[in-house]
Write a structure and sequence with these properties.
heterodimer; A: mainly alpha; 3 helical TM bundles of succinate and fumarate reductases; two-stranded antiparallel ribbon; 70% helix; 3% strand; B: alpha+beta; Ubiquitin-like (UB roll); Fumarate Reductase Iron-sulfur Protein, Chain B, domain 2; 2 domains; five-stranded mixed sheet; two-stranded antiparallel sheet; 9 helices; 13% strand; elongated
C-alpha cells in the first residue's frame, strides 16, 4: 500500500527588491569606485591619442605639425587636463589596492602592504623622472 | 529625570497581511549601554511582540543579528544606540537577500554557494591516525587564520553591489572561506575549488568595490582574498599554457 501522506513544502511569500540603476550615487565609496572604473576610458583616450600621434609620423612633417597644433587648442588642452587628472586618480587608487592582491613573503616575513604600495609609487616616480629627462634633454 | 528616547524606524513585512513592506516607528529609551539589538529586544518584549528578527549570542560571534542600519550593514549587537543620536535610526533587513518576514532574510542561497566551494580540508590520501597529527608552524597558521575568522554574518553580501546586481555571484564570504582552506598547509583541494571559482559566477565577477572588507566585523578582508585568488587563477592559466606538461 502506498503512503498517502503528503507534506506541504515551505513556500514563504518572499519580498525581493531590485537594485536601482543609480545605486552608485548613494554612497561615497560607490561614487569613488565608479569614478575609478570610469578612469579606464581616459586611459583609452590617451592610448588612442598616442596612436594618432604615431600615425602622423608616417604621414610626414606637415601632419605631425598639424597634430601638434591641434594639441595646443583649448579643446585639446582641456581634454588632456581632464584625462591627466583622471589617470592620476587611476594610478593612485590602483597602487593603493595593489597590496590586496599581492601577498609576498621573504622567508618567514610578510612584506607589509605599505611597502608594496610604496614600491609601486617608487616605480612610478622613477619611470616618470626617466621619461621627463628623456623628453626634456632630447 | 525623564529618560531620553530615540526613534527606531523599523522595516515591517508581514506576508500574510501585506504585499509591500512598511516602516513602523518605535520610541525606545536611549540608554548608554544599549546596542541596537537591545533596543529591538525592548520593542519585542515591551511594545510589539510581533516584530521578528534573528539574534543569538549578543557578542559578535554567532553572526545572526546582521541588519542594515541607516543603509549600512552592521551587526546590531555591536552598534551602540548612542552612535545614532539624535535619530531616527532606520533599521532594515540585510540588502541583496529575499525577506521572509520583518528583519529576517532567507539565506539558503548563500548556504548552497558555501557548499559549492568545499569549505573543508581535502586530502588526496588521508594519513592513518597512527602516524599522528598534521603539524603546522605558526607561519603556516598565520597564512589562513584571518580568513578563518569569518562568522557567516553575510554583511559582505549586503555591502557588495555585484551580489545585488548578479545574484549568481558566489560572493565574498564563500570565496574568502575557499581561500581559508586553499592556504591551509594540510589541504590539497585548491584545484577542485579553482574549478568552481574560475567559472563565470566566481572570482571574475568581482570588480573590487572593496565594501565587503569595509563592513566585515571580523577583519577577514574578503576583497583581498578574491584578488589573491585572481592572481593565483591567472598564474595557473599561464602555467597551463606555457608548461602544458606540468601539473
Amino acid at each position: 500500500m502506498s503512503d498517502p501522506t503528503r507534506y506541504r513544502k515551505y513556500h514563504p511569500k518572499l519580498y525581493r527588491t531590485r537594485m536601482p540603476i543609480f545605486w552608485w550615487v548613494r554612497k561615497r565609496a560607490h561614487i569613488h569606485f565608479i569614478t575609478r572604473e570610469l578612469t579606464s576610458v581616459f586611459v583609452a583616450f590617451y592610448a588612442i591619442e598616442l596612436l594618432f600621434l604615431l600615425r602622423t609620423l608616417t604621414l610626414g612633417p606637415e601632419a605631425y605639425d598639424a597634430f601638434l597644433a591641434w594639441l595646443q587648442t583649448p579643446l585639446a588642452l582641456g581634454l588632456n587636463t581632464i584625462a591627466f587628472l583622471m589617470i592620476v586618480f587611476h594610478s593612485i587608487t590602483w597602487f593603493n589596492l595593489a597590496p590586496k592582491a599581492l601577498v609576498i613573503r621573504v622567508g618567514e616575513v610578510r612584506i607589509p602592504p605599505v611597502a608594496i604600495a610604496g614600491l609601486n609609487y617608487a616605480g612610478w616616480a622613477v619611470f616618470s623622472a626617466a621619461l621627463a629627462w628623456f623628453i626634456l634633454t632630447a | 529625570m525623564t529618560q531620553e528616547t530615540i526613534a527606531l524606524e523599523v522595516f515591517r513585512y508581514r506576508p500574510e497581511q501585506e504585499r509591500e513592506p512598511t516602516f513602523q516607528t518605535y520610541e525606545v529609551p536611549l540608554r548608554k549601554d544599549w546596542v541596537v539589538l537591545d533596543a529591538l529586544n525592548y520593542i519585542k518584549d515591551e511594545i510589539d511582540g510581533t516584530l521578528t528578527f534573528r539574534w543569538s549570542c549578543r557578542m559578535g560571534v554567532c553572526g545572526s543579528c546582521g541588519m542594515m542600519i541607516n543603509g549600512t550593514p552592521v551587526l546590531t549587537c555591536a552598534a551602540f544606540l548612542e552612535t545614532y543620536r539624535p535619530g531616527p535610526v532606520r533599521i532594515e533587513p540585510l540588502a541583496n537577500f529575499p525577506v521572509v518576514r520583518d528583519l529576517v532574510i532567507l539565506m539558503s542561497d548563500f548556504m548552497e554557494k558555501l557548499g559549492r566551494v568545499k569549505p573543508w580540508i581535502i586530502t588526496d590520501k588521508e594519513k592513518p591516525v597512527a602516524e599522528g597529527e598534521y603539524l603546522q608552524t605558526p607561519t603556516q597558521l598565520a597564512d589562513f587564520k584571518q580568513y578563518s575568522m569569518c562568522i557567516n554574518c553575510l554583511l559582505c553580501y549586503s555591502a557588495c553591489p555585484v551580489s545585488g546586481l548578479e545574484p549568481d555571484f558566489i560572493g565574498p564570504a564563500a570565496i574568502a572561506l575557499a581561500q581559508r582552506y586553499n592556504l591551509d598547509s594540510r589541504d590539497e583541494g585548491s584545484a577542485q575549488r579553482m574549478e568552481v571559482l574560475s567559472q563565470d559566477d566566481g572570482i571574475w565577477q568581482c570588480t573590487l568595490v572593496g565594501e565587503c572588507s569595509a563592513v566585515c566585523p571580523k577583519a577577514v578582508d574578503p576583497a583581498g582574498a578574491i584578488q589573491r585568488y585572481k592572481v593565483a587563477s591567472t598564474n595557473d592559466w599561464w602555467r597551463s599554457k606555457l608548461m602544458p606538461w606540468g601539473k
